[in-house]
Design a protein that fits this description.
By secondary structure, the chain is α+β, with helices and mostly antiparallel strands. The protein has eight helices and 14 strands. The longest helix is centred in the middle third of the chain and has 26 residues.
Length: 340
């Protein structure tokens, strides 16, 4: 069993299990300032403008920040404070939730959290089922004492923002604005509360390797410490996602790329470590129901042209995603048509 990083005092060196082979290390520094990351303003009463901003950002990156989103600053602050307090709890309290069973909720783990890992990521994680509230709230950790109330308020507010964004995205694509309602977002809302302790040598390890999320959309906030990076369509170098105060980061998952028939990009991202400060992030995932049939929306396949992807169930997709360890191209290749 790998000992969670947050259970120990400050690390003076990177343990061998966390040292990546040279070809997998972070490499060169990101683009200066990360200024290329789009920012979508949800304020105002012009949905066409907002929809265009989302579609433009989705085409290039599949990832963007949103401001004027309506989640109260107090709600965000209390959730982040509770999350950071969790990782400061005594070892025995955290380890009571420790498990390598990926289906267990809630679950505290380190790296990816399974016993088959040969290479560990510089990350601890508390994985929580969040919505429907009545299904999950009685399972939430009782410590820290502030967590349950903070989690309920935050989940409710962020889920509402995500659904609004999906309605705007659907309209921007020319679909019925309710296209992503129903089975495409009927799965449980899951949150990864991630913690990346200060790393003595960020050049040799990663918090998370490059990947796209398997779901429809992810909404993320962090404690202001840099670490998240993304890259635009066509590959190339990595751009720092510089967190704007009070903003949320929105990341489209693989299902958005498939439903949009490749118009929008599943946001590829990774997490680098930080030598000076610990980073805590809250990643909230909206997912399809397991038996949801996913395919490109008919309105996005031009007359006389074929779909880029074959139909599948979300459960089938997750099997391929797990087998490919999240590798973007390998996962999509399992479902692409006319690959020749």
């Amino acid at each position: 069993m790998a000992e969670p990083l947050s259970n120990a005092a400050a690390h003076q060196s990177v343990p061998e299990a966390y040292v990546f082979p040279a070809h997998k290390r972070p490499g060169s520094s990101p683009s200066p300032g990360g200024a290329a990351i789009p920012v979508v303003d949800l304020g105002g009463d012009d949905p066409d403008r907002i929809g265009k901003q989302i579609i433009d950002a989705g085409r290039e990156f599949g990832l963007f920040q949103v401001i004027n989103h309506g989640v109260p600053e107090q709600v965000m602050g209390e959730m982040m404070a509770s999350a950071e307090e969790f990782f400061r709890l005594p070892r025995e309290e955290k380890m009571a939730l420790y498990s390598t069973d990926s289906k267990k909720l809630p679950r505290f783990h380190t790296s990816l959290g399974n016993e088959q890992e040969e290479l560990l990521y510089w990350r601890d994680c508390l994985k929580l089922g969040c919505y429907p509230l009545e299904q999950f709230r009685h399972h939430w950790p009782q410590n820290p004492a502030s967590l349950r109330a903070a989690l309920e308020a935050y989940t409710t507010a962020v889920r509402a923002v995500a659904l609004r964004l999906l309605r705007l995205t659907a309209a921007g694509l020319g679909l019925d604005e309710g296209h992503f309602e129903g089975d495409l977002t009927a799965g449980a809302v899951i949150m990864n509360v991630n913690h990346y302790t200060p790393c003595p040598d960020p050049t040799v390890t990663l918090g998370l390797v490059p990947h796209c999320d398997p779901n429809v959309v992810t909404v993320l906030t962090d404690n202001g410490v840099r670490g998240l990076q993304t890259r635009r369509r066509g590959g190339g170098g990595w751009d720092d996602v510089v967190p704007l105060p009070g903003a949320l980061v929105v990341n489209f998952g693989h299902q958005m790329e498939v439903v949009s028939n490749g118009t929008l990009r599943g946001g590829e991202h990774r997490v680098v470590t930080n030598a000076r400060a610990g980073r805590t992030s809250l990643a909230t995932f909206l997912m399809p129901a397991m038996d949801c049939a996913v395919s490109p929306a008919p309105g996005l396949v031009a007359d006389g042209e074929a779909s880029l992807y074959r139909p599948y169930t979300y459960q089938e997709f997750l099997g391929a995603y797990t087998a490919a360890v999240g590798d973007r191209d390998t996962v999509l290749a399992c479902f692409q048509l006319n690959k020749d």
